[in-house]
Amino acid sequence: MLRVRANVTLSSGAANELAALQAKVDGEADYPARVAAAKRRWGNTKKRESPFDEVTTALDKMCWGHHRCAYCEDSLADEIEHFWPKDLYPERVFAWENYLYACGPCNGPKGNAFAILPPGSTNAIEVARGTQTPIVPPIVGDPALLDPRRDDPLDFLELDLVETFRFRERTGIAPRDRERARYTIVTLGLNARSAVIDARRTAYDLLLLALESVVTRVREQRPLDHARRVVENTSHRSVWEEMKRQHTRLPELTLPFSVAPIALDW
Ligand SMILES: [Zn+2]
């Protein structure tokens, strides 16, 4: 998991259309009515029509690799994910800043799971509502989940490139940040799918081969375009980001990056 590739701005036309949809939800009499309206109106939107045709195109541009999921980086991203769940935060159901492109296997289990860190607290408090729970607004605070549009998840997380290819909390970060890292790993199941972990390992092998090719080509003064395309399009971009970040302490990466430091800019 890492920061989105780009933060895209919508055209004013699409932004205005979203704002008009949001205003209808916000205009409901009270919070339970706004929750119901958000669910109903979101269900009625046609994702291939304006403004969602533009929204999905913009979300595509924000994905790494070939339209990979913003959370697992593994699967095709084809579902609009509300970072702040629409059932809890109806005031964000049509907010562009609240959208990410995610895959079904990530979007489904996350569902309405969402936790808040109250000011000054280091304990994430789950705010997802059960079926018997009164429909009232969640407690106030910051999201525990890392938001790849606003946070740089790699400030909080580290990928083990030596053995496990699992994400872990970075050492030396503040307790509140550590709690966000922990909550994100568990809630998104970043280490829960063995196929995803295997895919990270394969990405590492491919990227290492590409890097070795870069070294050869630099020495022979040949073009680097192919290798660069492999680096830019291989799924699991966080593996490449970690290879760059950890290259001075991983011997098999130290030499290639020292011969071809240009790859540190890719
Ligand atoms: Zn996913």
Offer a concise description of the structure.
The chain has 266 residues and is mainly α. It has nine helices and seven strands.
Give a quick set of tags describing it.
single chain, 266 residues, mainly alpha, 2 domains, 3-stranded antiparallel sheet, two-stranded antiparallel ribbon, 9 helices, 7 strands, 44% helix, 8% strand, globular, binds zinc ion
Biggest β-sheet strands, sense, barrel: 3 strands, antiparallel
The first-to-last residue Cα distance is: 18 Å
Structural class determined from secondary elements: mainly alpha
Portion of residues in helices?
A: 40-55%
Tally of DSSP β-strands: 7
> Largest beta sheet: what is the strand line-up?
4-3-5
How would you describe the overall organization of this protein?
The protein starts with 11 loop residues before the first helix and ends in a 7-residue tail after the last helix. The model has no long low-confidence stretch (mean pLDDT 96). It has 266 residues and is mostly helical. The strands form three sheets. Strands 4-3-5 form a three-stranded antiparallel β-sheet, covered by helices on one side. A two-stranded antiparallel sheet has the order 1-2. The chain has helices spanning 12-26, 31-44, 52-62, 104-110, 175-188, 194-220, 225-233, 237-246, 251-259; strands spanning 79-82, 99-102, 115-117, 125-126, 142-143, 157-159, 167-169. It has nine helices and seven strands. Bound molecules: zinc ion. The site of zinc ion has 9 residues, from helix 4.
